[in-house]
Amino acid sequence: MLILCEKPSVAKDFAAALGASGKRGYYQGDGLTITYCVGHLFELLEPEDYDPKYKKWTFQDLPIIPQPFRYQMNESTKDQGETVMRLLKSHAKDEVLIATDAGREGELIARIALEQAGITDTSRFRRFWVSEALTAHVIQEGIQNAKPLSEYDAICAQGFARQRADWLVGMNLSRYMSIGNPPPTFSTGRVQTAVLSCIASRNAEVKNFTAVPYRELEASLRSGDTIIKALLQNPETGKSAFFRVNEPNLLAAAAECKDGKIDSIDSESNEKKQKPEKLLNITGLQKAAFKKFGYKPEETLAIAQRLYETHKCLSYPRTPSRVMGDNNVDLFREKFELLQRTFDRSAFCDPSLISAENRHIFNSTQLEDHHALIPLAPVPPEANEKERNVYGIVLKSFFTVCMPDFLFKEKSLRFHIGPHVFAAKIREVVQLGWKEAFQEKDEEEDSGEKEQEVTGFDEQNCSVASLKMLEKKTAPKKEFAIDSLLAFMENPRGDGEEKLIGLGTPATRAEIIKTLFAREYLTEEKKKLYATDRGRFLLEQLSESAELKKMTDVAQTTEWEQRLAADPKAFEKEIAEYVARCVSQTDGAERAAYQRTPVGECPLCKSPVIETKLSYGCSAYKTERKCGFTIWKTIAGASVSPADATLLLIGQKTKVKKCKNKEQKPFEAAFALQGGKVVFVFKK
Length: 684
What we know:
Elements lengths: L1 E4 L2 H11 L2 E2 L3 E4 L2 E5 L5 E3 L2 H4 L20 E3 L4 H13 L5 E4 L4 H13 L8 E3 L8 H9 L2 E2 L4 H26 L13 H16 L5 E11 L2 E7 L15 H9 L7 E11 L7 H12 L3 H13 L19 H11 L45 H16 L5 E12 L2 E12 L20 E2 L9 E11 L8 H9 L18 H10 L3 E4 L2 E4 L1 H10 L3 H4 L4 H13 L1 H16 L16 E2 L6 E4 L3 E4 L11 E3 L1 E2 L2 E2 L2 H8 L7 E4 L5 E9 L2 E5 L3
Parallel strand pairs: 1-4, 1-7, 7-8, 14-15
Antiparallel strand pairs: 2-3, 3-4, 5-6, 8-9, 10-11, 10-16, 11-14, 12-13, 13-14, 17-18, 19-20, 20-21, 21-22, 23-24, 25-26, 26-27
């Protein structure tokens, strides 16, 4: 039997479980061969590989729709690709077990390999479909329960359709939007463009927001020595405490409720519990690492990959799941016992929660591709600081999920004073549970509604101690940061706040954000994300056409995902027709060419200084002047923003920046421009 895995580490697990020994690129045992891909062994051809004429980008050659799509072997994994091809061809008529990852991408990787090996008869092929940790027992049970490969044809079709649709959109619309514009390419994609649009829309919403003053009337209610706060409810809106300035109902309540007499009280009490956060998936880890340490998503993924591959102390990182499989209780308990001395608050854990009955941790029905992130061994001494930091986030998550629930009694109160109603929510803690472990350092944040924690407040014997008019202003939504953007991509909302299908996958979201930065569509200032002039220009050009504008619509992107799942062939055909409509609307002759906004005037020749990928340079560098004035975007390890460049060009200095010298020793200095060169300005 031949077993085809997706990655070397999985093949190694299979070999250990089945008693196979290692060869170059595969393992062998008694009547058994195990080999592996290294991710995608094959990639779709570029347009010019179909026809050399496509090397030159012209409107006349669009749309480019290959019939059929063709593949070529990835050069970076060519040796392993040739090994896999040789083994597949030699075992084509034997029993073959496909054991790539249990998901759409894993299925696609295997099916492309079979296709490229020329295998058409898969009647003897079975599919190993397991997302749990690959212990020997899980592997053997998974092999016994393997189903015919044909039962996974539907998910295979989805994988092919999604890959081809992304190629059609990317290759055609990127060319269409780039022709007639200066380099670099105006890359356009089904997901990345929609994400860029969301960021630009939020930027515009914040920039154009006008604060509206409003008032709230707050009553301090006393019962013995305990005081709680309650807000006057607006009778026009029902539950809202928002009042327009000098609104009659507000002024009347302020005048009529001073005597402290409460006519009646409505109360509703509920016992509630709050479980600790579930185990982390890769998106959760990326959000936490950015929030705590400022690590970019792609950096966190790379660190997690090293912890998995090199240090072997972390489970497979590219996982979308936040649970373990039903069969992973023993594995979880083993790691708990191994690592509990390494976590300073493990004493707050309840080991009895490590049970198959605890669906908060063990739930195979919620597994996708791989189980949640867990630590597998202590972090080794040779791990660097960043690796220790990321490992620490996972370690904390692993032990926190084993802590008891936070239990409390919640009470909703409504105080009637004449025609006026004041509302408050209070809660009394019954059991701190997991929150007890983090009280001193206040590390855990409660994302739920902030309620007043009190003990012994008797609403039947209370009075109004004082009234206070609160002067407030409406505030805009916050600009996206990396963590909030990842959260939005995971759970996007439409214009009507309806929940939509996620943008990208946990494994691709970091790459999407990285691409937006690399394409100069996105910039970051003080952890806030902003669409650049270049990014806004692309969105403006797409908005010139109703068809092209669909690329900027999150709802449209998620609708395409739904159609992909429902009928892959129809979806691929629809995308091909959509692309054809987009590129046939105009020859681009009237399209406005992108003009970079100057950041200032060149001190040497007075020409505009424009932003490029790596620097801010004189626009006259290609003219007869050949002016070479440049301000690099990174100087001594410190970033120079467009605003910094503008300050330098008008003769001012930047703020003090954290720099590093050639020996990587840190120092602090501001930047200034002298004689056309950037110099350091040190504090005396």
